Amino acid sequence: MDNLPKSEANTTPLTPLTFFTRASKCYANRASIIYEGTTFTWKQTYERCCSLAFSLRALNVARNHVVSVLAPNIPAMYEMHFAVPMAGAVLNTINTRLDANNIATILHHSEAKLFFVDYEYVPKAKEALQLLMEKESTTTLATHTNSYSSNLPLVIVIDDINSPTGIRFGELEYEQLVHNGDPNFIPYEIQDEWAPIALNYTSGTTSAPKGVVYSHRGAYLSSLSLILGWEMGTEPVYLWTLPMFHCNGWTLTWGVAARGGTNVCLRNTTAHDIYRNIAMHNVTHMCCAPVVFNIILESKSGIEPNEIKLKSPVRILTGGAPPPAALLEKIESIGFQVTHAYGITEATGPALVCEWQRQWNKLPKQEQARLKARQGVSVLTLGEVDVKNLDTMESVPRDGKSLGEIVLRGSGIMKGYFKDPMLTSKALCNGWFQTGDVGIIDSDGYIEIKDRSKDVIISGGENISSVEVESILYKHPRVLEAAVVAMPHPKWGESPCAFITLNKNIKGKTEKDVTETDIISYCSKNMSKFMVPKVVKIVEELPKTATGKIQKYELRVKAKGFAVTQYHHILPMSRL
Amino acid sequence: MDNLPKSEANTTPLTPLTFFTRASKCYANRASIIYEGTTFTWKQTYERCCSLAFSLRALNVARNHVVSVLAPNIPAMYEMHFAVPMAGAVLNTINTRLDANNIATILHHSEAKLFFVDYEYVPKAKEALQLLMEKESTTTLATHTNSYSSNLPLVIVIDDINSPTGIRFGELEYEQLVHNGDPNFIPYEIQDEWAPIALNYTSGTTSAPKGVVYSHRGAYLSSLSLILGWEMGTEPVYLWTLPMFHCNGWTLTWGVAARGGTNVCLRNTTAHDIYRNIAMHNVTHMCCAPVVFNIILESKSGIEPNEIKLKSPVRILTGGAPPPAALLEKIESIGFQVTHAYGITEATGPALVCEWQRQWNKLPKQEQARLKARQGVSVLTLGEVDVKNLDTMESVPRDGKSLGEIVLRGSGIMKGYFKDPMLTSKALCNGWFQTGDVGIIDSDGYIEIKDRSKDVIISGGENISSVEVESILYKHPRVLEAAVVAMPHPKWGESPCAFITLNKNIKGKTEKDVTETDIISYCSKNMSKFMVPKVVKIVEELPKTATGKIQKYELRVKAKGFAVTQYHHILPMSRL
């Protein structure tokens, strides 16, 4: 039976492009994209992408060339997720909150041939290209020619499709490429599902960005996983609050096509825009980090949180951090249904999802929140997930307390880091991808992350989970956000240092009603002594990445400052 | 980027066994199987399968050996879907309604090493082995030894786990193998996803059975497709009305494991057993051919159809024939929600599913039924589906009327026919699998089957779709079932001949109230003249396959008899 020959009829390569072709045929007249006053159908989107792919080829883009894009969640950004691979090329979406220097580093490392820039980001892109030019030690700006006369990428500006601004940067404009292309272009045929489809740079906080390469197979299977894990049925209306540059929108760029859903694009994720779009288009699904819950709840658009009640439920997939119980209760009370997932760039987005069990509906809200704060079980197409002692590679017992590193394997795991074989083989050694996250397995098989390995605070030999201290801080009625990091300590090696922001929405209370000492005394009453932060700082704002993750690296630098007179020689530098 | 090496961490082979391992970890304590008084959890089922796989290896079952089974939908049948591939072997489930001769042919052709037989089928199995022995020209019955002293398979009887009968056939019994095995057995590692997992003989009505080989990859992707297409969410309770021997239960044997659902096993699919199990276990999903709707509605268990109202909706996936409008309306009125799919053994079960669109809910019931009778759009993991003119290989226009053959390609298509390279290359030629079904594409992209190519009646040069004539017959209030086949005709070449059964549930009406002439006259008023059956036969029962499909081959033989005096030399024999 092994000898039955493979044929074209039974060995189609797995690629998200088949979702798109299928959508263009099965859901031809259904809305694919809605962006303010502009709407497309799946047939139109398909034809636009064929046209764009044609134009990319005409600009000499070839197999495995990198095409970079710096743009918010606009239609062009969505279309490029299909048009670029349809030209045989690899899509590189750049985090729009990176600075010009980071962007230059990515353009340089990826050897991008084309660089699509949304009109809003033209100033930053100009600066990045200037820096890139210095890196490349060349003097010709490629934006004024149609060929690759240098190592600099050709720039294409994306003007707003709904309300054009006329802002240009070089000669080429996105709509013009679509207009000049051929809607009957026959897409580049993917022969090998292991071929690259996307290159995503992780926003490394401590090191140079790493270029994570996704295969067509990995993107395909991960997209299916997320639809299955989130139980996204047919005809979803998906609101793009999560940036598409983040793991290709947790693979939902491709996933919404698989479901023939409608993509509601958003330039800005203000509370006002979110509510307006939900109401206008009957949004059914959206993704965001828990910090966005605050944006939604602390609506600055004149809508009072108490007045909000959604007409029909909107499902939120959240990740990046466990949703704190209080926040979860508030957001669910106004009609959002939250699913918690855990993803990582190297795993092509979500790898674990906290699958809800019906029996939990009978539990008290607080207990439900605790269960939901867990990262959960592996998504369906992941080969395997485990929590292991990395020294012995043995699995930890399912006891809800033994810590180990979360490791993953499966076809959704990246091909590797672009041009970095050393780092690749380190990340993928022993047959597993090592996430760098430390967790436990509960007796029911659900995994909970206790910390990033580098965020664990080791105090007098005790491992303190910064997440655990934070979760207790979150229960304080005045705490809006909390982040705990290691601070050098002359006696214990490290000790916890907490940074918090205060909830200002409580009537009759001012900021001065609560002091740092109050918080420390609250902690003393609510956690083990060795876990109590030695220093608490109330701040106006916590430093965050583009995706809303708190940047603990910056806080660690600050914490080091607070303790500088005391420790000096004691702290192991490697932990910073 | 092509050069990034594959590693164990990112290239796990696709196999349904990962669904099972995952279920044993993520849903360890959830019910996996319920069968009368017997219940297992996923952890228990996993351990039982490890034990059984161990015992299979101990019985010298090796990689790619075929293990056959003749059993109804009992726990053992479900377990073997995992235990057999966990031993590296290939599962061959045999249609229990085949006769001893057919079974002997399958055992001979598949070279089965083991033959599991449910106690109910021991007499038939004995007869089959006798016939096999004659085929093999050997005199040793292998059932009395533990080794392969002949080409005959070793027999293992499966006694009823819930109420053992003590019936034996040879020395070995299923529960004993489970008991003697090792629950910690480490399953055979699937290295290549293209390796075979199952061998399913199509119940060929005109030719010798063909052995359709499924790969692990195909089984995996097809399972995901069906869960997605049917929108089967988490925690389904699946009632096994569809035989598992039919395309491995349309891949749901593996699919229910993927969802961590509960399998409610059934020895007999009587209306009484169906209702009893639905009520006791809160069944959410089941599959069956439309003819089973009649069993459900014409309940012989003392329950009147009018009294039936399900407590909560049960989703039915139906296939094999389009559900007639009247039947659809009746079954949905008592709480079943019907999804229509189209499958074929060679495509590893369902290949098309009639995805329901919300906007259709506003249409009149009759129109909804018409839309639902269509076979629909391709399941998600199928590479592509098309309707083509096989002579030119051109696609037919999406006009709802141009006929062509339905062709499929994708990883869910079989590896090929076992030991039949000629037939394999014929079925998979030109890059497509040719279904032998004739259909159209509507303007919305939905496909509708008009006929099996061999069922099309060619009368005076006109193509008559037998399905179309049947659908009009079904609208007659007294018609319960209808089947139309070609009958030789001296003038027109062929003409339609209808076989019908009558609805006996109508009060105050007897069978004699309606005559064959009445039906012909009804047809004359309701269809084009050339389509009107020249002969109508009212029969007590239509001949059916084990899965409830009407056996048109037998009817064609009968129809030939009716017309025998008239035609003789005219009919092309190839069409019979």
Automatic annotation (TrEMBL), chains A, B:
Q: Which UniProt keywords apply?
A: ATP-binding, Ligase, Nucleotide-binding
Where is this protein chiefly located?
cytoplasm
Under the GO molecular function aspect, what terms does this record hold? Answer: 2-methylbutanoate-CoA ligase activity; ATP binding; medium-chain fatty acid-CoA ligase activity; propionate-CoA ligase activity
Q: Does the keyword Nucleotide-binding apply?
A: yes
Pfam families under this entry?
AMP-binding, AMP-binding_C
Domain annotation AMP-binding enzyme C-terminal: ranges: 468-549
List the subcellular locations: Cytoplasm, Cytosol
* Top-level taxon: Eukaryota
PROSITE patterns reported in the protein's UniProt record = AMP_BINDING (PS00455)
Example of a GO cellular component annotation carried by this entry: cytosol
AMP-dependent synthetase/ligase domain mapped to chain residues: 21-418
Record has Glycoprotein as a keyword: no
**Similarity annotation:** Belongs to the ATP-dependent AMP-binding enzyme family.
Name it: Putative 4-coumarate--CoA ligase
Q: Origin organism of this chain?
A: Lupinus albus
